[in-house]
Task: structure prediction
Amino acid sequence: MPAERDEVIAELYVEGIPVAEIAARVGVCIKTVRNVARRAELPRRHCPHPQRDAAIARAYEAGAPVGHIAAQYGLSRPRVRRIAERAGLPPRQGWQRRYPIDEMAFERPTCVGWWLIGLLAADGSINAAENRISLCQSTRDIDVLHAFYEYVGCPGRPITMLNLSEEAKARQLPRGPAAEARVFSKRLVEAVGRHGVVPRKTAVMELSAEASREPAVWLGVLDGDGSAGIYRDGRAPKLSFAGSAALMAQCERFWRDQLGIQGPRPAARPHATGIWVFDLWCAKAERAAHVLLDASPTSMRRKRAVLTQIAGRTA
Result:
């Protein structure tokens, strides 16, 4: 229950457990921990810690990896760097990524890049403070995470497996194992942000005008939050897109233009709180499947197989 969860968070917070560790234990995000502490009128954690900051500065000066320092003190990497900067320490010289990435990957996206922008619009997460782009999928669709890493130039980077705490598992519906791809780049964050993939995008997601005209983007949206299926004994193929009201309005405009749709139907419609859908059935779904398959040579294998069936093609 939320009340019991908040009580546990408050107790751990009072004990002085780092916010990041509390979030990991309880299975929530760091922001939730801070919000619970604020509602409980607990003191803010960012009060001065001269002894801790001095220890961090010494470790930084001695050459300890920033990630190790951050994990030890329950802080983010950018905060460790800010503490070192305030201590008068110069930024690290000769620093290199363990897994180099292509900083230009989303400056002028290829068809695969546009597909990934659509997928990030649906399933991506942006942390501006850490310059982090995260993409989460169930392990059955882990192929898209490898495709993401390959596109941004780090195909050897390991996938992160996501493990919920027992408390978090008890609060959620049963689900299969999940994995996440993460890259850290201010330039990549800014590039995808120009197309609407920004922090806290879920309820207000809206693509740039350029991105909304790209068929591969809608292939990515379908792979992320959409579905494809064949119903009524194979006589009724269906493509269903889902997202914010603004995103589904763009989806409707795209398919009306692409397929020459006239009349009031099909139309975007509300589905659940904050979620809208846009559906294409039968002949329209078949024509749309052809458009999507031609949009990018790379997409989610599982849904691509269904699109191939709908389009009447051989795999």
Summary: The chain has two domains: 2-86, 99-315. The mean pLDDT is 88. The chain has 15 helices and eight strands. Residues 245-259 form the longest helix (15 residues).
